[in-house]
Structures are given as structure tokens and as C-alpha cells.
Design a protein that fits this description.
The complex is a heterodimer of chains A (261) and B (403).
Chain A: E1 10-19, E2 22-32, E3 36-42, H1 48-55, E4 63-68, E5 71-73, H2 78-83, E6 86-89, H3 101-105, E7 112-113, E8 116-117, H4 119-132, H5 149-161, E9 167-171, H6 179-194, E10 198-202, H7 206-212, E11 215-220, E12 223-229, H8 235-243, H9 248-255
Parallel strand pairs in A: 3-10, 3-11, 6-9, 9-10
Antiparallel strand pairs in A: 1-2, 1-4, 4-5, 7-8, 11-12
Chain B: H1 11-29, E1 31-33, H2 34-41, H3 45-57, E2 61-68, E3 71-78, E4 84-90, E5 94-101, E6 106-113, H4 120-137, E7 145-152, E8 156-157, E9 162-163, H5 177-185, E10 189-193, H6 194-204, E11 214-219, E12 223-229, E13 232-234, H7 264-268, H8 270-281, H9 286-294, H10 298-322, E14 326-330, H11 338-351, E15 361-364, H12 371-382
Parallel strand pairs in B: 4-7, 7-10, 11-14, 14-15
Antiparallel strand pairs in B: 1-3, 2-3, 4-5, 5-6, 8-9, 11-12, 12-13
Classes of the chains: A alpha/beta (261), B alpha/beta (403).
Amino acid sequence: MSTANDVPLLSLRGLGKRFGAVEALVDVDLDVYAHEVVALVGDNGAGKSTVAKMISGVLVPDTGLIEIDGETVTIPTPIAAHALGIATVFQELALADNLDVTSNLFLGRELHRGRVRDDETMEQIARKVLRDLNSRIPSVKSPLSTLSKGQRQSVAIARTLIGRPRIVVLDEPTAALSVSQTAEVLTHIERLRDLGLGVVLISHNMNDVRAVSDRIIVLRHGRNNGEFDAATVSHEAILAAITGAPSTRELDSRAFLPTPH
Amino acid sequence: MSRRAPAAGSQSSLRDANRNLVVETVKRYGGLTQVELSEATGLSQATVSTIVRELLAAGVVDTATTTRSGRRAQMVTLARRVGLAAGVQIGHRHLRLVLGDFSHQVIAEQTLPLPADHRVDTSLDRVALLVVDLVERVGASLDDVVGLGVGLPAPVDASTGMVSVRGIMPGWDTVHIGQVLSKRLGRPVYVDNDANLGAIAESTLGAARQYSDSVFVRASYGTGAGIVINGQVHRGVAGTAGEIGHVQVAFPGELCRCGNRGCLDTVVGASALIDRLRVSSGPLALRDVVQRAIDGDERCGKVVAEAGAMIGMVVAGLGVAVNPQLVVVGGELAETGELLLRPLREAVRRNVLLNQIAPLEVVAASLGSRAEVIGALVLALQSTALPLRVDDDQAAVGVGATQ
């Protein structure tokens, strides 16, 4: 969602990446505005995760520009991404099972008062962040090992909110979750948007994508292959763009052609 | 609240009738004090007290001490073991579910965002899975669930539980929704229009609790109304009563999903509001329009206020037809509070026929955005017949899940 003359929070221009003979990305463009969920969809190997890795500083593009607030930036490392206000949740979550919820949220960036770890403040912030997300996690002191898969995903999403990010990248957040866990995660994504963040959602599930995103960007063989308004686009049109089939619009216009006599 | 005369006949049949009346009344309100129970049933306080004691011994009701206007009172609720029920609201962009017991206490709830024009097969599948999950979450089993109330944003034929007007929910209008879900879950399913459910909830538990004739207006993605006459929802022969979203307000107006032109929904429905703001504010979701209006955005506030005035004009017509004591306004747009309500109220007052008995009040839904899903829960509970065998085998009062 954006007013017409807003500057995008994040803008990718002509991104390219090669791995040997594999063209992972060719000339990919992507804009994310504040208060907006942009879904990045595509088949396996379409380049979705490569884009996520470039935004979060894991991979560096061979060609193209990354702009934040209209200014060109380089994101050489995940730490640089974090400093620019970009938080990422990868598919494999990267949480510590033996620690509790608070410790996981602050892992690697614990707060200190003087030389002592400030557990009380961290727990307060943890509670606030979980409340902001409408999360159903009973206690910030529960060890991760006692939580369900969906609750862990909640913790991973909550972790992105520590340190006030502006852009959140979620890679397949609903993969392998039950319907009720999916409901939780989708509700969290709505909350992130309502909090004014720009969200990049990577997913295979068209239902989930169309439920929470504002715009849908399709990648196919590492190239942009269509951009859609999520509120009006049909399921079939997105699938057509993903699979490379002629779009329903094209089919429709063919159907209206006068039959030759 | 309706006053029913006790059945004529022998003393014991009279006692049975009174006992039934008390249980039905508790079921209707969820929880009442004995004094309120006596007022609601028309039975004397001594009779109510005796019946409550019997029902308590039989395990049909529970009592708890509470206070009413500073005095100690006995709150009567149906015993929890009488069973659970689920309420489901299938909206345009959200699925809402609640699980509650016979005291109308919600014990678990869940919301799932849905895509625009979601498909009937996927969504019903998700309803079934989420109901099972909610039941497991409270440590119960599906056998404890006496029934499932389901609300749809379309007119519903009460006898079949199917959408009764073509085109309003494409894909849903040929599916026997109640049957699909009851087959899947093995429990009785009651389907109704969401505005009717809002009306049931508000007249049973909410703002219209004190009134026998009221109208619930739902201002959401589309507009609808539930009409309560003499404590009962009036649905009409095909369930289209109160479908004010399809009253013509523009001439000739835009084409509506229902096939007519210039319907209220083409002027104040979500897509109409969003289209009006698209150039100035970009593509917004209905949720954004509501939030921005609350935050003081003038453009969004103006669009909401104009929608309120337009809805109020149509509600005034309904007011003339039904002559309710109260109009309760719910739905997403009502979350803007007086921004929607004031112009709506003014339009109603300006256009309704004034009488000398009581002015027509217009208030916000006291159950807020949960009115419809709570109404679905109440519908399931009210549709369930409880077998009452207090006299013979007192321990045998169990869960009655008859359709």
C-alpha cells in the first residue's frame, strides 16, 4: 500500500546473479513500500530464495542496484543488512532449542546494563513484541523445545521485530505447518504490515499468498514474469505466470477473436 | 423477552413445562441471576429457586455467587458438561472461529486471513480442520460439540442451509454447505446469514438484549441487516429479509453482483470505498481505510462518513417497515465509532417516522467485531435440544446432539 509518489522502502533494480553456467537471476526488479506485503512466488529454482539472500546480505549480486529509501546501498553481510533495518527469517529458522523464548529473541544481541545482562528489560520487550504480534505463546520463559512448530515460527518472526527493523523478509514461513499454525503466522504477517513494515513474503502456497499480500510478483527462470494486485488477481492468472502458460487474459482475448470463415 | 404461559394440564406436566422454560431461558442468555430468571420467565422467585435447585442436583445447571447492583445473587449457567458448540464466520477476507459452552463463554478462538474470492472447497476444508484443532486445544473431543453455527456473507435459505441468491458468492451458491461440514465433522451444522447472526448475538447478549424489536446493521465488505421481531430473527421466505445492500440507491447506478443496478453495496461496499480513495491514497485494504479514518485521515474519514449517511437513509426505510426500538451497527466500518455512527444516526432520525412512544436509538454493537461469530455460536446452542430427564434418572442428563 502506498501513496502514488512515495519512495519505496526497498528497491531492487536489474539484479543479476550467476553460479557458473546457471543464471540464477536475470534483470530482476522489485519494490517494497512501507505498510505493504509483497509476495514473491515462483516454481522451484525460480530465484526466490536468491533474491531473499541478496536482500539479507548473504549473497552479493553480480549486477544491479539495491536502493533503500531511494539511496543506493551495498549489503555485503547479514550484519550490514541488520544495520540497514532488514530482518530475515529463513526456512530453517535458526533458533536454539535449549534456550527459552526471550534468549532466542535476543540471541547474539543481548541487552546489558553496565556489564550485567539485563534479563528484566529483555523479558519486557519480549512480552511486548509477542503481544504486538497477537501471539499465543504462553510464557516468554518457556524453552523452545516445548513449543510447537507453529509457535517456533512465531518466535522466529518475533525475533525480526527486535531492533526495530523496517523490512522483514520471510522465506516459506507456512511450509509444513498445520492450518491453525498457518492461521497464526498469517495473522502475524498482517500485524507486521499494520505496524508499518515492508514485508517480502516468499511462499509456494497461493492461498496464503493471496490472503495476506498486497502485490504478487512472479519469478520464472530467474526473471520477472508478471506483477499482480493481490486483491483482484485470480488464482489461475498467477499459476499461468508461474508455469509460463498463456495468461487467462490472453486466452480470453483469443476467445473473443472473430472466427474465420 | 417473550413470556410463555405454562402448559395447561396436570401438576407434573406444569412442572415439566416450567423446568423446560427455565432451561431454555438460561440457554438463551447464557447466564442469569435467579431474580433475572424470574423476570425473564414470568415465574415466581420461589418457583425459580425450586427448579434451579432440582436442575442443580441433576447436574443440568451450575450456580455461582455473584453481585448484581451491589447485592449478592445466584448466577445460573448451564453446566459446562452439557457440551460445547462452535461458531464459524466465513467472511470475505477472514475466517473466524470460536468455541464456547452453554453459558456463551468463549473458551477458544482463532482467526485465519483468507484470499479474496476464496474457494468453497479449500475454505470448508480449513473450517473443518480448524474446528477439530480448537476442540483439541481445550482438551475436549468432537463428541462434546453439540453443533456448529456457520455464518456467510450472503442470504441463506434456512430450510436447506444453502446460499439462496446466485452471484453474490460465486462458487458457493451450488454447494450444500451444512451437509459438507456435518458429513466431515459428524455434528449438526446450522447455516445462516452473518447479519442475522449479528442480530441474534446482539439481541441475546449485546446492546439489544433489553429490546424485543431491533435491527442489526452490518457495514462491512457488503452491507446487510438482521431483523429481530418479538425476540425472533425474521429471515423471510428465502432468507433475503434485511439484505439492505441490495436496495437501489443510485439511478441507474453501477452493475451489482446480484444482477441489479445501483444497489447500496455498489456505493458503500468495500470495493466502492477503496476505488474512491485509489487515486489520492493508493490501493488500500478495507482494514486500512478503517484504521486511517480512526487515526484522523480526512479523506478516509470523509468516505466513511458519507457511507454512514447513505446506509442510514436505507436503514430509515427499514425502520419504517419494522418499527424497531433500537438499531445496532456492527461490521468492520463500525470500528470507526462515531465517524460512521453519527451520520448514520442523523440520516435515520431525519427519515424515520417519529412516534410519541420512544425515539429510535442507533448504537454500536456491544460485541464489536465478534458479534457475528458469537451469533453463530448462539445459533448452534439454541438449535440444540437438550434431553431433560430430571425426575427419573437424574444422572443420565447427557449431551444431546440431535438435529
